[in-house]
Amino acid sequence: MVAEIICVGTELLLGDILNSNAQFLAQQLAGLGIPHYYQTVVGDNPDRIKKVIDIALGRSQLLLFTGGLGPTPDDLTVETIADFFGSPLRERPEIIEDIERKFAQRGRVMSPSNRKQALIPEGADILPNSSGSAPGIIWQNPRDGVTIMTFPGVPAEMHRMWEEIAVPYLKSHGWCQETIYSRTLRFWGIPESALAEKVNDFFNLTNPTVAPYANHGEVKLRISARAPSESAAQELILPVEEELRKIAGLDCYGADGDSLASVVGQLLLNTGASLSVAESCTGGGLGAMLTSISGSSNYFYGGVISYDNRVKVGLLGVQEADLMEFGAVSSIVAKQMAVGVRSRLETTFGLSITGIAGPGGGSEDKPVGLVYIGLAGPSEEVESFEYRFGNIRDRHWIRNLSSCTALDQLRRKLLNS
Amino acid sequence: MVAEIICVGTELLLGDILNSNAQFLAQQLAGLGIPHYYQTVVGDNPDRIKKVIDIALGRSQLLLFTGGLGPTPDDLTVETIADFFGSPLRERPEIIEDIERKFAQRGRVMSPSNRKQALIPEGADILPNSSGSAPGIIWQNPRDGVTIMTFPGVPAEMHRMWEEIAVPYLKSHGWCQETIYSRTLRFWGIPESALAEKVNDFFNLTNPTVAPYANHGEVKLRISARAPSESAAQELILPVEEELRKIAGLDCYGADGDSLASVVGQLLLNTGASLSVAESCTGGGLGAMLTSISGSSNYFYGGVISYDNRVKVGLLGVQEADLMEFGAVSSIVAKQMAVGVRSRLETTFGLSITGIAGPGGGSEDKPVGLVYIGLAGPSEEVESFEYRFGNIRDRHWIRNLSSCTALDQLRRKLLNS
């Protein structure tokens, strides 16, 4: 039994958006051990969508559609599928009610155009969309041995529908014989090449396999095992994970869903410590990262966005003389920012960032990508760290790298103290 | 004459990488005015690649392949194409020399496996790769009226080969009769369905076409025109854009590369006004959005992340009594935060956000998704806005929606004053 991914949307043919839905479903199918050999992208065109369905039915049994479930006239995936199999559309009142309820929650009234989203082919079941207005369908045997599922193009909605409904359905309907279970170890502060050399031998393993990935300055190692059950796969993975963690030491900060912010948060909780931040070039990005974790209010009090030097002086107590002599992007100012916010907000730790995110503002001795991180703790001693992230990446890259690196320095401090 | 994109690589079927090559080629084809209706992803499997070629030849004349040009045994795109058309492979000495030269430049010796990359089907031309070892092919009329091009999967190499060789070739061979030029109008504060109804008639236009998109709470209308030249296309687009802007009024905040942060920034610059922010549930996200714009230091001074109530009182002067009586998530506290940060940082405007991002922390009368935005300006009067974003989306969604909506309120204020 083979699956096929069919992504519908003229915006994909125009290159307006990246087809992240295909990657998500591909990863998920691999994880469930469901083979899939083809992915197709087609525009919002009934005739071409029908041709794609016809081709797919000749080589696959599970057809997964994304896109074209919206309320506008060019969203016609479901009606085209119904038409292909010669099944009439029926308006499902429970969908209307659901959409009306969701609009009401937002203090809005459902538009007539949304009624379209309540039309489901006779014989198909509703694939509920818990976060958006457009439901999908699960249609078993529109033709013998064929199962069809449709998902909206909005990734967040699609992911949730896949995890909440589609995966349990596929497992209970015998689609997943052997499972591929993966665990991803996460690293910060070591380049991919350096890590790869340290763990080179592991890349030759066959079950589990170990593969490296790098993105946004983070390095990951994915350990994937094939086994009849998830627990059996985990048993294959565990010893390899332990060896890798031993080799990497502090550079391995977590696994799977962990983030630097969640790991730092847990360490602060464990020690009963609190944190405040002072941000210049990141402009609030560090605080946003920390508060992306639900429950962060238990250890994160807040901070000061001191984008302008007047705020560094007025709210953080940075010395005007030092700003004049050393400049806002300097070790001493980073330290004063960290000390200032820590005493101002009365927290255990104060973490600061000041740097040149570019593209403008760089100079000979202070180039774009120069970033200072300040860290003030309960002891008198205050640390600062200098980084030169270079100017080959963009402003967003440098700001993100700065926030992550600040969190990583605090993480190492908490682990070493 | 229709093009088709065929991406070869098992790593795509495993979801290990995002198919950015398909997006790049799609954008390029649209820009060149070469229609393309299908994209296919297939693994490194000769039989399946041949099936895909067979299907593509039935509906397209220009077949663009990416991936499978490497030196390893699983790279077999070119030999499979040659096999499909029954043409023998010939080793091309100029390719061997080129690869040896590139290896020598990096002080390395070409490995025997690279010889494979010098095999080109009889009748095909070499598509030189100036930056990598793997060349592609340009094969005109392996079958009458059919042109085939192959590119490596490495995006940087593929982009360069496309721009240096493929585009000039396509132009000189009459593939580019007309260009497709698009302009995207951006909207905030109106749901996709409501906007769609207002501009419903425009969806029936043929040249230019108008199509709606929605993501992250933003709605877009893309106007695309076909014409012999970009300027001619722009002439077709302009009157439609003006009509749409007239209909949408303030709900249309910009176009193409604009963001709410860049538009607000420009408005502040134009009026010589300055801004500070006070953030609770967004934890710095609003400041990060504002400072994502290079040059934002000209109008954005900074702000206070008042995640904990002690910070609201201590740094922003929020009244403890009001916190007790009305709670941190209330209209009066939002107003006091905005006034506090404005006077504290001595800016023209103070913008504040306090809300419940969830998933925890909600209650009967203050559910998850309840957000108050405060706006203090030069005049005495201070505004606050209440939103109920609901709890069907996740924490990230509510925080992003809160920051964007705060920027949108400031935008409307600046346009109305």
Q: If you average the pLDDT of chain A, what whole number results?
A: 94
What pair of chains forms the biggest interface?
Answer: A-B, 96 and 97 residues
Helix and strand content put the structural class of chain A at alpha/beta
Distance between the termini of chain A: 54 Å
- Count of DSSP E strands of chain A? 17
Shape category of chain A = globular
Q: How many helical elements of chain A? A: 14
- Strand order in space, largest sheet of chain A: 2-1-3-8-7-6
Name the helicity range of chain A: 25-40%
How is the quaternary structure best described? Answer: homodimer
Question: Would you identify the regions of chain A where 5 or more consecutive residues have pLDDT less than 50?
Answer: none
Report the portion of residues of chain A in β strands. 15-25%
CA-based gyration radius of chain A: 26 Å
Structure explained in plain terms:
The first copy, chain A, has 14 helices and 17 strands. Chain A has 417 residues and is of the alpha/beta class. A six-stranded mixed beta sheet of chain A has the order 2-1-3-8-7-6, sandwiched between helices. In chain A, α3 (46-57) packs across α4 (77-84) and α9 (260-271) runs parallel beside α14 (395-416). The longest helix of chain A has 22 residues, at 395-416. The radius of gyration of chain A is 26 Å and the shape is globular. Chain A starts with a strand and ends with a helix. The mean pLDDT of chain A is 94. At the A-B interface, α1, α2, β2, α3 and α10 of A face α2, β2, α3, α7 and β10 of B.
